[in-house]
Amino acid sequence: MRYRALLVAFLAICLSVLTACSEAPSATSSVPLTYDQIRNTGLANKCPQLSEMTRGSIALESGKTYKLVGMCIEPTAYFVKEEPASKRQAAAYVPGKVLTRYTSSLDQVSGELTLNTDGSLLFAETGGMDFQAITVQLPGGQQEPFLFTVKGLVAQSQPGQSALTTSVDFEGDYKVPSYRTSNFLDPKGRGLATGYDTAVALPGSGDSEEYLKESMKSFDIGQGHMSLRVSKIDGTTGEIGGTFEAEQPSDTDMGTAKPVDIKLQGVFYARLEEV
Question: Within this chain, do residues 62 and 98 fall inside the same structural domain, yes or no?
Fold first, then answer.
């Protein structure tokens, strides 16, 4: 009986540790975690979270330049647009399961924030760890790789704003580079900058229409659209948080495949600084 009580106590301690490790790190935590406490827990992939009771505001002055730094964008839901089986039906987004483990969030993204003359706020992304290669799987087993990014994001809020409040929504477009780089080689050794021009062992028919599409590699740059909805603001520390929704194309396999539309939903966090 004594061993059973000890076993129950040990399992309770293990369960409490696992529960604590699964929670997102607090943005106001005064005790930073060590590398050993974070490794293999998935905490590094989670964005800091502000308290649900944080509902302040930050006043902005026209003519001054501000900067959003330390921005973290964490997807929590993935959807893939599927073409309908019948022409009478409309295309719909199907929820997908992310296969990429612990490397789906963007972090340390920064950009300038300015107050326009009409009272709208303009955010222009300038750099950071602003891309992640992700793969999602549909219920039928089909896998769709894509490059989640906010490169060159220019998002503007509604006019009539004199401060950064929880009613501010940013919306704008960004660039989506190719999932693969120019040095990538396909299984036949063909690439954009290196490798063969045509498939080896098929030199005579390499220029046929059937193989031309696979042989002519390209670095496609698509366009995505993102909405950032601010819902939490700490006026003392300059921290903001909220939710986001983004739509962008998937990978084209260096121009050989038709892209599909990917929708992502999640949370974000950032800090406002005056330049």
Answer: yes
Tokens 């004199």 belong to 162
Cα 243 to chain center, whole Å?
12
Q: Which of 272, 263, 275 is CA-nearest to residue 76? A: 263
Q: Report pTM.
A: 0.83
Concatenated DSSP letters for 185-231? B-TTSBBSSSSBSS-TT-STTTTSHHHHHHHS-----EEEEEEEEEE
DSSP assignment letter at 20 = H
CA atoms of 97 and 77, how far apart (whole Å): 8
Query: Domain span at residue 154?
Result: 56-181+219-275
The CA dihedral of 105, 109, 113, 118, to the nearest 10 degrees, is: -40
User: Across the chain, what does the average pLDDT equal?
Assistant: 86
For 42-82, what is each residue's pLDDT tens digit? 888 999 999 877 788 999 988 888 999 999 999 999 999 99
Q: What is the SS3 assignment for 6?
A: helix
Mark which of 167, 202, 217 sits at the end of a domain.
217
